[in-house]
Amino acid sequence: MTVTGTGDDGVILDDPMRTKGTAFTAEERAEHGLRGLLPYAVTTLEDQVRRCWGEVDRQATDLQRYVYLRSLQDRNEHLFYSVLAADVPTALPLVYTPTVAEGCKRFSELWRRPRGLYLAWPDRDALRDMLRNRPHDEVDVIVVTDGQRILGIGDQGVGGMGIPVGKLSLYTLIGGIDPARTLPILLDVGTDNPDLLDDPFYLGWRHRRIDDEDYFAFVEDFVAAVEAELPEVLLQWEDFATPHAAPILARYRDRLLTFNDDIQGTAAVALGALQGAAEVAGTRLADQQVVMLGAGSAGIGVMEMVRQEMVDQGRSPDEARSRCWVVDVRGLLTTDRDDLSGDQRAFAHDPADVADWDVEGLPGLADVVEHVTVGVLLGLSTAQGAFTEDIVRSMAAKVDRPVVFPLSNPTANAEARPAELDSWTDGRALIATGSPFPPLARADGPDVPVAQCNNVYIFPAVGLAVTAAKATRVTDAMMRAAARALGDASPALHDPHAPLLPAWADVRAVADGIALAVARQAVADGVAPEASDDELRDAIRATRWDPAY
Ligand SMILES: NC(=O)C1=CN([C@@H]2O[C@H](COP(=O)(O)OP(=O)(O)OC[C@H]3O[C@@H](n4cnc5c(N)ncnc54)[C@H](OP(=O)(O)O)[C@@H]3O)[C@@H](O)[C@H]2O)C=CC1
Ligand SMILES: CC(=O)C(=O)O
Ligand SMILES: [Mg+2]
């Protein structure tokens, strides 16, 4: 039933951006024709937040908590963000990884209300008309996915929409982007997930994914429609499969304000965490041998930024490359392989480098760790438990402070669990994970939180920066500036026992610092209008949306 009240503004109760629910004052109730439509008591936002957290706590499972919070978001956006802000560390795993993965898998079953835009291939002639149907005219940030590589759980088809919705809620919570100026988009080009194709409740276009020629033409039409309708918007590509992710980024990065979060955001957060780790380990990144398990777009994106950092620290490009080792499902990337993309080939080793290793076929991760003094081991492979006890002990036998980041999401896909890494290395490992894990227990002191090395430290701040600075492009230097600013905020720089990345409670202040660094770089790169630091700070402050009524 639609509540219409008697005043000219009576529908306000149903408008998630304007409603205050029971917090409407007596005067507001009279003004908006709401008298009698609400119970008599007038509550405060703080009362409502406490009541909602009570509801969250009473739910039996995290998936139910996710469903409750998503419903709250659709009902009252100010209250939703006030609830999240009241306890960011507890809220984050409920609206983001790992719970959002379950929300994506069960998207059709859990469907309640529409949010964002669903642009399906059969409607390809009407892309611009559909964009015009967006709920709010002005948009600062779009997050778009085609649902093909959702976290580490593969093709979720239309269910992938959970990710743009979740990411954009963090743009607001952390980056302060007005929720009415965000737009989640799902490009529905079919699904190759047989369970979804067989699911009678599946809400997407029930069809196999279209072929690449049609796919790239569809993406081009989508980008052209965005350019025509929203020429200044930030367009974030999220969770595209590796064969599409890098080509799309290459095609559009110099044409509009855009970036790929999995490639560039992940690289920036990893480099930021590595800055803290280098400080504690007392070694420069450029002096390390760095191994990446996983040669997808995320892994290669991280290694590209690692390589660039080594060059900035004084290594020649060839020296830097020789210190990077990338292993995929077949084994080490080597130049004699014929199954590598150009981006992967940039990290391939000459087979001569490993000729004396006495290994049958391609060396695997264990072989690399056995033959190389690995200082940094990173995982973006989706391979649960791939950092085995033997591998980690072998690495830790050769370095004082092994840096081990199992970064795959959600939790079940992590290459190792922090407690195991901690025990196998007698507490020497410097650890960061992609999804949240419990803190490490210490016999002689308080528990130590595990840093969550997730691109959520980066994308909201980048969105805040480009919106405030009116940037027209996202340059590599801007992403490097984000990484450095995050690294500079690492608690480990001041306390070797502290986590490598800032606490969630501080994440909004950290985002302001990252946003300033990124905005400054945008000005320096000539992709944003001239502005002083003070002007940029003012613009960042002015851009931040406040969830108070
Ligand atoms: N922490 C964070 O912020 C982020 C984490 N991620 C996570 O990174 C993971 C990967 O993402 P993405 O790069 O896009 O995905 P892809 O699926 O494209 O890449 C996975 C890579 O890992 C390789 N791989 C798979 N299984 C194994 C195995 N058993 N041993 C060795 N290598 C293996 C694959 O090889 P092959 O192609 O030959 O099968 C491929 O190179 C996901 O879990 C995602 O959630 C992503 C972005 C951000
Ligand atoms: C965090 C993220 O973007 C991913 O796992 O894909
Ligand atoms: Mg992602």
Entry summary:
The protein has 549 residues and is of the alpha/beta class. It contains 23 helices and eleven strands. The protein has helices spanning 26-31, 45-58, 62-75, 77-86, 88-95, 99-105, 107-110, 127-132, 162-173, 194-198, 212-229, 242-252, 261-281, 297-312, 317-322, 342-345, 365-371, 389-396, 418-424, 459-469, 476-488, 507-524, 533-543, and strands spanning 117-120, 141-145, 182-188, 234-237, 258-260, 289-293, 324-327, 374-379, 403-406, 430-433, 451-452.
Please supply descriptive tags for the structure shown above.
549 residues; alpha/beta; Hemocyanin, N-terminal domain; Rossmann fold; 6-stranded parallel β-sheet; 5-stranded parallel β-sheet; 23 helices; globular; disordered N terminus; binds NADPH dihydro-nicotinamide-adenine-dinucleotide phosphate; binds pyruvic acid; binds magnesium ion; oxidoreductase activity, acting on the CH-OH group of donors, NAD or NADP as acceptor; metal-binding; Aminoacid_DH-like_N_sf; Malic_N_dom
Structure overview:
The chain is an alpha/beta fold. The protein folds into 3 domains: 74 residues, Hemocyanin, N-terminal domain; 158 residues, Malic enzyme, N-terminal domain (Rossmann fold); 280 residues, Rossmann fold. It contains 23 helices and 11 strands. The strands form 2 sheets. Strands 7-6-8-9-10-11 form a 6-stranded parallel sheet, sandwiched between helices. A 5-stranded parallel sheet has the order 1-3-2-4-5, with helices on both faces. Strand 8, helix 18 and strand 9 form a beta-alpha-beta unit. Helix 9 crosses helix 20 and helix 20 crosses helix 22. The longest helix has 21 residues. It is globular and about 80 Å long. The N terminus is likely disordered. Bound molecules: NADPH dihydro-nicotinamide-adenine-dinucleotide phosphate, pyruvic acid and magnesium ion. The site of NADPH dihydro-nicotinamide-adenine-dinucleotide phosphate (NDP) has 31 residues, from helix 13 and helix 14.
